[in-house]
Amino acid sequence: MRPVSVWQWSPWGLWLCLLCRLCLGSPSPSTDPEKRAGSQGLRFRLAGFPRKPYEGRVEIQRAGEWGTICDDDFTLQAAHVLCRELGFTEATGWTHSAKYGPGTGRIWLDNLSCTGTEQSVTECASRGWGNSDCTHDEDAGVICKDQRLPGFKDSNVIEVEHNPQVEEVRLRPGVGWGRRPLPVTEGLVEVKLPDGWSQVCDKGWSAHNSHVVCGMLGFPSEKRVNTAFYRLLAQRQQHSFGLHGVACVGTEAHLSLCSLEFYRANDTARCPGGAPAVVSCVPGPLYTASSGQKKQQQSKPQGEAHVRLKGGAHPGEGRVEVLKAGTWGTVCDRKWDLQAASVVCRELGFGSAREALSGARMGQGMGAIHLSEVRCSGQEPSLWKCPHKNITADDCSHSQDAAVRCNLPYTGVEAKVSHTFHLSSVSIISHFVQGNPCLWKTNHTHSREGWKLPYPSLPLTASDLLLHSALVQETAYIEDRPLHMLYCAAEENCLASSARSANWPYGHRRLLRFSSQIHNLGRADFRPKAGRHSWVWHECHGHYHSMDIFTHYDILTPNGTKVAEGHKASFCLEDTECQEDVSKRYECANFGEQGITVGCWDLYRHDIDCQWIDITDVKPGNYILQVVINPNFEVAESDFTNNAMKCNCKYDGHRIWVHNCHIGDAFSEEANRRFERYPGQTSNQII
Fold first, then answer.
1. Distance CA 545, CA 80 (A)
2. What are 106-160's pLDDT values in tens digits?
């Protein structure tokens, strides 16, 4: 307990304080830029690499000792305060898990909590100076806006390391430079330094170094190379060595994170007795160039992958999902770092990770969250081999889904396509109905051409619609609805064709009803293809149709034959509800704008017209209920493979049981096969 002085509590002390306040006036925050952080005895700098001048690991000097900040509870608000301390106007982002490399010395601040309006980081809450349970693998960094505060004058300028930095790495073929097919997988290692491209001396060069270089260039692994050929070649060529003494552990995501020794300008004898370092990389399956390599890879047994990326606009990026007990789920971003992200990237046949993304940057998943606090060394062959924490109900939410951006080989073509399923003019959904998950490979005429798409390129950000499958299962029931209540539904073609010959208005139709809750988990709002000027007014129901067909509802036999169908026009695309931090943007009332905002969902209740399938003519048996959203691909989405939902159905002529509802890509291949073969499917008889 801190001792409390009598002065603080005496009436005389209180009277003197009030008197001084009246005489001298109330203190106000200083707006003089020279009186900011520097006057408080602290200095700030950005450190680490690779980085730009306005980003880096945040380091604070206190009592003459430089130290870092732990990323626990770090937020963009804290980054704003620190960027202003550094003389920038604001922050545009922040990083965790020592993205710019681990620092050294003290960890000055932990659990830093700022509102973003503080004049100094000393005004933010924390555990106290020097009180931390973190390691330097959790050092926080900031990305500031490249704009200086007006009149900022301070000694706390950004300090840049005096050693050169490796900006880029490339492989230069020993022969045929410029004529070799892309991607280049073997050649002399060249690094881009401030004064241009230079070679690396091969003295002490190791397989760990090659592993890091290949990862940077988009390749998952390296192989031995015939150095004798390149040494013979080196005797006939001039070389410019700029780097020697490279020592990598093998888990680094960038060569700059390895221990490097640069030649000085006055070094005359460079790499005596040595030669340029040479690396040979092994491309992943998507980038295998020669037929020999293809045959070799195809001959290996290919089991089902246990990790995949979803929601990305390009190959090698997306939300990380892992397979557990036959079901796909996401990974919580707690402790998510470049080492774990690199394990994912290499496992999928790409290079090391370029970015480890947190906060559902590639959209939120649905369903299970399988892993949390994944801690990889970077050497593991699979994410499942890394130490991790099994998730509990209170541990994480999908707003914390982890994602990655991987290093890709340079092919000369930027192909925008989901690496999990390549889109094709053939309907993905039709193959899903047959229970055959497919991987579409389009024409690949030459390695320079890369991957081509019959569809237009997807936008960098797009919507991603997903049906809440559990709600369908919970709300399904049968209703015998009188014909005199179905005139509007008949006008909108929501009944089976046999209804036309019914004895109107007498009799009834048997309807399978259920609720549809459609979430937008993408990175852009879902908007109708047509503008409101072309929407069609339907007098009977009193609403506009912004899309002729928004969903298909079907009852199928086990072999995929359709026995009943329904369809839903988007007569009201709107935000029914949203996540806590998201505001509604679309509603249909008063001819309002239609759409589904990112983080919101549109609910079609089971008791509204056309929210059904007319099963009047369906015989008792075992069936599949299928719902497909955006079936004609009229609106761009980042992922069409999750647009279909299927359920097992058992109908005895009076009652119906709907169970095992799931999104098309939610199960493993084996689980999907079991779904197709559940008892009674083959004979289509009630069991």
1. 45
2. 999 999 999 999 989 999 999 999 999 999 989 999 999 988 888 765 544 444 3
Strand (E) or helix (H) holding 601:
strand 600-604
- Please tell me the distance from the alpha carbon of residue 78 to that of residue 120, in angstroms, as a whole number: 10
Structure tokens given for 97: 């898990």
| Tokens linked to 137 | 């693998």
DSSP code per residue over 258-302: SEEEEPPTT--S-STT--B-EEEEEPPGGG--SHHHHHHHHHS--
Q: How confident is the model at residue 568 (pLDDT cuts 50, 70, 90)?
A: low
Rg value, the chain, Cα: 31
CA distances from 64 to 128, 263, 423 (A): 17, 32, 58
Q: Which tokens belong to 377?
A: 């060394």
Distance CA 505, CA 484 (A): 5
pLDDT in tens, 475-527: 999 999 999 999 988 888 889 999 999 999 999 999 999 999 999 988 889 98
Question: How crowded is residue 447: how many other Cβ atoms within 10 Å of its Cβ?
Answer: 18
- Tell me: the pLDDT tens digits for 151-169? 765 544 444 344 567 778 9
Distances, alpha carbon 204 to alpha carbons 84, 201, 222, 262, 487, in Å: 44, 8, 17, 14, 83
Give me the residues paired with residue 662 across strands: 646
Amino acid found at 318: G
Q: The dihedral of CA 250, 252, 257, 262: what is its sign?
A: positive
Whose CA is closest to 100, among 50, 161, 28?
50
pTM, 2 dp: 0.61
Question: What phi and psi, each to the nearest 5 degrees, are found at residue 108?
Answer: -70, -40
- Contact indicator for 130, 183 with CB cutoff of 8 Å: no
